[in-house]
Amino acid sequence: MRIYRLACVLASFCAPAFAHHSVAVSFDTGLSVQVEGQITSIEWRNPHILFTLTATDGSDAEWEIETHSLSIMRRLDAAEPFVAIGDQVKAAGWPSRQGRGMFVNNMLLPSGEEFVFDFRPEPTDLIWSDRMWGSNANWFAESGDGSDEERGIFRVWSTTLVDGNGFFWLPDYPLTSEAREIRNAFDAASGPLMECGLKGMPGIMGAPYPLEFLDRGDRIELRLEEYDTLRTIFLNPDTAPEPVPSIYGYSTGRWEGETLVVETSSLNWGHLMGRGIRLSDSVQIIERFTPTESGGRLEYQITVIDPTTFTEPVVMDKSWVYLPDVQVEPYECAL
User: Could you read off the pLDDT of 112-126 as tens digits, one per residue?
Assistant: First the structure.
């Protein structure tokens, strides 16, 4: 049951989360195609890694193939390209809705191993091989290394997918009738996440990319890998600047024991996740970041209050773990 739930969550993750375009808009996720050919180009970049493959079935057809971001690939133990130009491979995935393209989920490598672009604890959908290349272990860490317990919250945190709690999206939201009409009319092809469009609050907190808390005395800096985002959380009202509306809002923080409580207002991004649910300028967000006693896991709760959009406050949860070898890497979104 957990695997099914996870598959459903990640299907929705794949569809809207990337900035370059919506996968669900560009690819038919209800179909699967296969092609065999030679790799002729590689672009190892964000928000999608791109390959060009020339079919060797006699047609010499050229396929544009893409997959997940660099950060996601690093979590799968693929920090560097796992194929080279000239390699003969097989690929399977979702076909493009326009032109000859594919969002690849499986690739048979020259070594005979199969790379599976999958987020299940134990991938079961290998097509050609019984040998998997890469690893899903980091995605399913129950709790990270707590050896730096004295650092508390001030470290790099990585999303964990254990129990399906890696994303805080809900299957449905308590929308007002007006907000529901706006969502139903939403066109992802012209949404805010296209063409490397920046993602604001609260959507930026739902992505599976690393983040880091930095202690700056009277403020906390929160660095998020996606879009090279920097949020500032002001702790001292006497030294905090006047609020200025932005896509990340104006955030103030306080400590309740080991829990960092952050309140954010002055938001002008206008979206919940960038998928059709709009937020008003009066939206308020309350976040609670709580490290576990061992220091290896960070529990997160976010409450979104916007009577224009929701009939009641929306409460969502997410978890991160501490993995010592993970850093916040440059994102550098490229078109």
Answer: 999 887 666 666 678
